[in-house]
Specification:
By secondary structure, the protein is an alpha/beta fold. The chain has three domains: about 5-130, PAS domain (Beta-Lactamase); about 140-210; about 215-345, Rossmann fold, CATH 3.40.50.2300. It contains twelve helices and eleven strands. A six-stranded antiparallel sheet has the order 3-2-1-6-5-4, sandwiched between helices.
Length: about 350
């Protein structure tokens, strides 16, 4: 009595069609005989699993496939290739199994097997191996992204929003003439703490987005230079007023020159700076002519002073970009503090 698969394999025309189908598939396909534990027919994709060159006419022992399977997944492979396959006990979605293919590269393949005929004395099975390595990697990355966004949502809704609301309340209360000086000072101290929390939370968010905050490139800079002037270049007038006052709190004798326009700053430096002994604090984020354009132009100047980029950006892209300019000796994130100024001006 002929079983379906024996009849199929014995028919020349049908066998030729099977060969064409196997050749067209992008997956690794095989026919196997469980009785003699070997793969009797397969396509090139399956043959490429093995380091030796197997011709399509040769059979391949199960043991060779077991040998390249990850040891933790080998039991799954043996279960699927076993002679006692029970279709009710086997996962219909197959099993994901790791294989060490050529050059020792580990890839994950989904293996599905089935008997060719529901006959007790028939031991022929067919199988399909689909490479799911990239799919699993993308799924893993998606899970990581989902986890990160949930964490970011918590940080923004609980930490940032909480401190922002606290500062808003303090601002409203400070206008109340009935509060005492002690209460006013306590509120100011609380608002300072909230600002610190918000700043550290921003860094936490940045870290969650995988930006690297460590940067040893600028560590070589020794702040033991005596500057004749400090040049502030920032389009925000209020920021310039605050930064100028902070600098003068640290050193009341040093001259601070402020520019809100890139072109005006370039003209001043080209005519006034004859020694390269100024210190330029540059905000790179301008609405029109950016600080990056200033650096491009300034590196063409015959005399150059040192530049410290003072920016609200904590993106490593900006830090990496600043490295390209030899006159840039440091990169500082806003706000400017008296401690930062002391580091700039004194050893």
């Amino acid at each position: 009595m002929f079983t379906e698969n024996r009849l199929f394999l014995n028919e020349k025309q049908a066998f030729s069609a099977l060969k064409r189908f196997f050749a067209l598939s992008q997956n690794a396909l095989f026919l196997a005989n469980q009785a003699n534990q070997s793969f009797t027919f397969f396509n090139d994709h399956f043959a490429n699993f093995f380091s030796e060159n197997n011709t399509l006419e040769e059979s391949i022992a199960f043991e060779k496939l077991y040998a390249i399977a990850h040891e933790d997944d080998r039991h799954l492979l043996k279960k699927l290739l076993a002679s006692t396959i029970d279709q009710h006990s086997v996962n219909e979605d197959g099993e994901n199994i790791r294989f060490f293919c050529k050059k020792g590269v580990c890839r994950v393949f989904n293996l599905r097997c089935t008997k060719l005929a529901n006959v007790e004395d028939d031991y022929s099975i067919t199988g399909i191996l689909t490479d799911v390595t990239d799919i699993l990697w993308f799924e893993q990355q998606q899970k990581k992204s989902d986890k990160t966004f949930r964490e970011l949502s918590f940080i923004t809704s609980h930490e940032l929003r909480h401190e922002y609301a606290k500062i808003q309340s303090i601002i409203q209360m400070l206008d109340n003439i009935q509060i005492s000086e002690k209460e006013r000072n306590e509120m100011i101290a609380a608002s300072r703490h909230s600002i610190q929390v918000i700043n550290s939370t921003i860094f936490k968010i940045n870290h969650k987005l995988s930006f690297n905050q460590t940067d040893g490139y600028f560590d070589f800079y020794k702040k033991n230079h005596q500057y004749k002037k400090i040049i502030l270049i920032d389009d925000d007038g209020l920021t310039n007023i605050i930064n100028k006052r902070i600098i003068q709190m640290v050193n009341s004798t040093i001259e601070v020159v402020v520019f809100t326009d890139i072109e005006a700053a370039e003209i001043f430096l080209k005519t006034a700076d004859q020694s390269g002994e100024y210190l330029i604090l540059l905000d790179v984020n301008f609405p029109f002519s950016s600080g990056w354009e200033f650096l491009e132009n300034y590196q063409q100047f015959h005399i150059q002073s040192k530049v410290i980029v003072l920016s609200s950006s904590i993106d490593t892209y900006d830090r990496d970009k600043a490295r390209k300019y030899p006159m840039v000796v440091d990169y500082i994130t806003k706000p400017l503090s008296s401690e930062m100024v002391k580091e700039m001006l004194y050893v």
